[in-house]
Amino acid sequence: MSRPRDADIPTLPDDERSAWLTSVATDAARQSGAPAELLGAYLDLLADATLVGRRPDPDEVAAVHELGRQAATQGVPARRMAHLYLSAAARLWSTIPPKCRARDRDAVRAAAEAVLLAVDGAVAALVAGHDSERRRMVRHEESVRRQFIDDLLRGDSDVASLVQRGEPFGLDFSLGHQVALAVPSGKLVDEVAVASALERSIADAYVGREVLVDIREGQFIIVAPEIPPALAHRGERPEVGSAIQTAIKGMRKGVRWRIAAGRAHPGTYGVARSYEEAREAFELAEILQLETPVVYAHDLLVYRVLVRDQAAMSDLVQAVLVPLTTSRGGAEPLLETLQMYFETGGVATETARRLHVSVRTVTYRLAKVAELTGRDAAKPDDRLALEVAVLGARLLRWPQRELPPVD
């Protein structure tokens, strides 16, 4: 149904109607703090409902839905918009021009019902439009954020673009950044909520410096600014591993976390480099079954060197340790004893205690190693070859896996 012609409201000329609605819009905007222009044609349909009892048609409600979308794009909260519309309705009803008030009871009742229906339908359409646009904006923002983080971690070659796209996230690439991985031992109920909590907590620890947290296949990826050495030495700000540990303390009990952190590097490529270091550190910690909750790439550099040349490492294991497979119990008990012997500084009694065996068993196994390999773990020259070979075996996961072929 279209709006009545002015002739249907003979007691209210166009200029008076316009002045009335303008006054209503101004007062409602002042009370709500929302822009008056976002009322759109809502005041006209309210005026028609008030003066002649006309109910809004679907096209008019659809127009209010679009006004809700516009409000969302302008950043006006839905609550404030609802306040604007309800204030306008109340103000319009209370300021009906005197010449339009002389109506019978039935006319007033019909007008009141029409106004209530108009307000109800308009506010519902307004909120629906606002929510729809906000969801679209959130999806778009999440898509933009995820694509930016993907390009950042991959080391996109378009440096200028990364720098420009990083500005809304507060990233200053003239400073160094480091990347850390935080991986829970079990499945979390709400990964998004955990990521948000991590981001807030770590950002607080960095005194407002921007921190990005993203989720990839159950792994939480944290991009944090480098802490100036002077502050780090004084302990004024925790490094990223400690900040993550603090953040996860209050989370779900019974979930163990492993945290791996790369080194801080400057520039956009520095983020990708630190991410690669964090990934390698995490993988090495898993392979070596390190018990420490936080591992740092700079502490595992020697392992990274060994991993990079798998052919040489495989050759060393083949030459030094493969003879252990001829032992009646296989190579694993002997390897375990060698590893613990080296970790305890060559103390047989401590080795026995940690392995829950007798000292006699330890000395027997070490003698068996010397017999099969021709190398004595107690002699410095032999010890180096055996210790590096044992470390190589752990990194290659031998003997559980076959050794890589040697060229």
- Rounded to an integer in angstroms, the radius of gyration calculated over CA atoms is 36 Å
Q: Tell me the total number of β-strands.
A: 6
* Total number of distinct structural domains: 3
Task: Provide a count of the helices.
Answer: 16
End-to-end gap: 85 Å
- Overall body shape: rod-shaped
Largest sheet at a glance?
6 strands, mixed
- The structure class reads alpha+beta
Fraction of residues in helices?
55-70%
Element order, helices and strands? HHHHHHEHEEHHEEHEHHHHHH
Ranges where pLDDT stays below 50 over 5 or more residues in a row are 1-10
Strand content: 5-15%
Mean pLDDT: 84
Verbal overview:
- With 407 residues, the protein is of the alpha+beta class.
- The protein folds into three domains: 6-135; 172-297, 2-Layer Sandwich (Alpha-Beta Plaits), CATH 3.30.70; 309-396, Orthogonal Bundle (Arc Repressor Mutant, subunit A).
- 60% of the residues lie in helices and 8% in strands.
- The chain has 16 helices and six strands.
- The chain has helices spanning 14-32, 42-52, 58-73, 78-94, 105-154, 159-166, 191-205, 229-234, 240-248, 267-288, 301-308, 310-320, 332-343, 348-355, 359-373, 380-396, and strands at 176-184, 212-216, 219-225, 257-261, 265-266, 294-296.
- Strands 1, 2, 3, 4, 5 and 6 form a six-stranded mixed sheet that branches.
- α4 packs antiparallel against α5 (105-154).
- The model is unreliable at 1-10 (pLDDT under 50).
